[in-house]
Design goal:
By secondary structure, the chain is of the alpha/beta class. It folds into two domains: 196 residues, Rossmann fold; 173 residues, Rossmann fold, CATH 3.40.50.2000. It has 16 helices and 13 strands. The chain is elongated and about 65 Å long. 50% of the residues are buried.
Length: 385
Amino acid sequence: MRSVLRTASRTPLSVVIGAGGTGGHIYPGLALADALRRAVPAAVISFVGTERGLETRLIPQAGYRLHTVDMIPFDPALGARRYLLPAALMKSGAQCRAILREQGAHIAVGMGGYPSAPAIVGARMAGLPSLIHESNAVPGRANRFAARLTPHIAVAFDRSRAHLPGGDGALTTGMPIAASLATLDRTALRASARAALGVPDGARLVLVNGGSLGAARLTEASVGLAARWRGRDDVHLLIKTGPAALADTRRRLLGTPAVAVPYLDRMDLAYAAADLVVCRAGSATVAELATTGVPAVLVPYPHAPGDHQTHNARVLSDAGAGLLLADADTTAETLAALAEPLLADPVRLAAMSAAAPAGPHARAADLLARHVIELAGKQRELQYS
């Protein structure tokens, strides 16, 4: 057995992570990859995604290799194209099997979303262990399918167990978040963060975060809120629009106390500078808010499968750390009715921050990485026994 372990230990750990589409799947995948690198610096880590999502920018930018496969969404809105899903899964799964062999992979990890399902199918074809991580309180279609192909399941929230095949045995890790957020000291970083983001001295900052691609409803309401606040110097809006709406939004914000940006690559600065966040309720965002303690107005995306964003949002609203606002009710007027009393009441903002249910998210990436390394280690021993 000693010779087996010595031989296996000389073989670099190789992990392929399936993550793509939106930042809600990509950023947790990158947090896991960084945690794996911290634990095993020589590890070979690469990603599988498609050519359509943000992974084509975010993953190479983070320094990791991205392999792309041909896959379509698990989406009933595709109409007749949904009947192509089985064939697409088989094709993309075979592509992933080839990628896993090329990388000498010991394990495949799926972070949810349709780009990650082929990694689990490919691992099954290749006879390799695999693991899925479910980030939402109510699982998406891709992970409900992938959970049937692997016995190894991790979840961010306990309540998602009941919705997954084999969920009773799932490991609750929390949501992997970036190390810069897991250890964020908002008070210590606040002054430099506000200076970096150009927040005027003495102004309260409302961060509007529509997710990695922006959210038209939030952008429209925040533009109206900026117009309402025209001429004020005690409030400031930072609006993340995504790239598509940027030019038009910037034109409409002229003369208001607001700035629009396409992306926020330094979320630690944004959270440290903000007094209040207006946002969707994706699982990654909810985990980040719970960990960093930034008060929030949560506007769940109404078309999320299983209404999972509302379930996510209630993690914060039930604790008193956030307010829930329906998408259909989100206007400049309703935002003002919620935000203006909060911004004028620092005691209430502090109470909301203190109520944030931090949970296990700050250590989730390291916990999930240890589980991945353990499963991969068993595979390495088998290969070299």
